[in-house]
Amino acid sequence: MKPEGRLTPASGHSPDSLPARPPRTSAWLAFAAFGAVIAAQTFAILTSPADRDMGHLQKIMYVHVPAAWMTFLAFFVVLVFSVRYLWRRRENDDLIAAAAAEVGAMFNGLTLMLGMIWGRPAWGVWWVWDARLTSTLVLFLIFVGYLALRGFVDDAQQKARWSAAVGAIGAINVPIVYMSVTWWRTLHQPPSSPATLDPVYTMGLRVNAIAFLLVMIYFIRKRYEIARLERAVEHMAQAAALGGP
Amino acid sequence: MAASNQTFIIAAYAVTWVVLLGYLLRLVRKGRRARADYDRFAHEHGEENRE
């Protein structure tokens, strides 16, 4: 009999059978994604001329901006699956949200580091407490907190419920980060996008964004696969402890 | 100026690759460990069920 309030296993196994082994994420996706990054970076570096104001420093845009976009996208995935979890209480949704949160936090940290590396020669400082940088740091800290929360809470149901709430509330910060350069006077330039860029830089930015998207998809799939394996082991351990099959 | 800018550009790309490959390596190791744990548990569990 299913214990009171227990989550529906991601693997969909019945208490009388072993949880199914999740399918392995294709290594070809990893090769394709990382190959795409190499090709996109080579293309962008070789084809983009020096910018009138920033010179070749502009080339940092091809890693900084896609990393920021992937941060936003990953946290949007967290929002969608956290809300879905709160609505349907399916374990799968919690595990996808957690996988996207970890990948998003990684891209968020990368965005901050690249921003600092770009800021030092462009502005003369590594860091300034302006609206864009501060809100991006707050976003990063929220998702580090989300991951820490998952590490501290043992009960799977409580962990899923609390982290879904933190994930959904934390993702609300994304539009604040995006709009911060419009709402407040900041040292950071307005958002870079194909609409605001000189056409000579547009293709380089697009191909790098697509390559980063492939990397993000691979990372989230792989992290989700691992989470399902770990959860399946937990279910088996629980069943063994209860003397079941 | 141009030379120092080049240092920052190289640093940015180097940091990107270190972070992406570092995370990839972490996932590969974690995945290998999780799969081994699953196989071990499934094997032991299967043995118990047969007994």
> How much beta of chain A, percentage-wise?
under 5%
Note the quaternary state here.
heterodimer
> What structural class is derived from the secondary structure elements of chain A?
mainly alpha
Main sheet summary of chain B: none
Radius of gyration of chain B equals 22 Å
Total DSSP E strands of chain A: 0
Rg of chain A, alpha carbons: 21 Å
Can you walk me through this structure?
The complex is a heterodimer of chains A (245) and B (51). Chain A has one domain. Chain A is built from seven helices and no strands. Chain A has helices at 27-47, 61-88, 91-123, 131-152, 156-171, 173-183, 199-241. The two termini of chain A are 13 Å apart. Residues 1-16 of chain A have low confidence and may be disordered. Chain B has a domain at 25-51. Chain B has one helix at 2-50. The model of chain B has no long low-confidence stretch (mean pLDDT 86). Chain A binds chain B through residues 18, 21, 24, 30, 34, 37, 41, 55-57, 59-60, 63-64, 67, 103, 106, 109-110, 113-114, 117-118, 120-121, 215, 219, 222-223, 225-226, 229-230, 232-233, 236-237, 239-240, 245, and chain B through 1-2, 4-6, 8-9, 11-13, 15-16, 19-20, 23-24, 27, 30-31, 34-35, 37-38, 41-42, 44-46, 48-49.
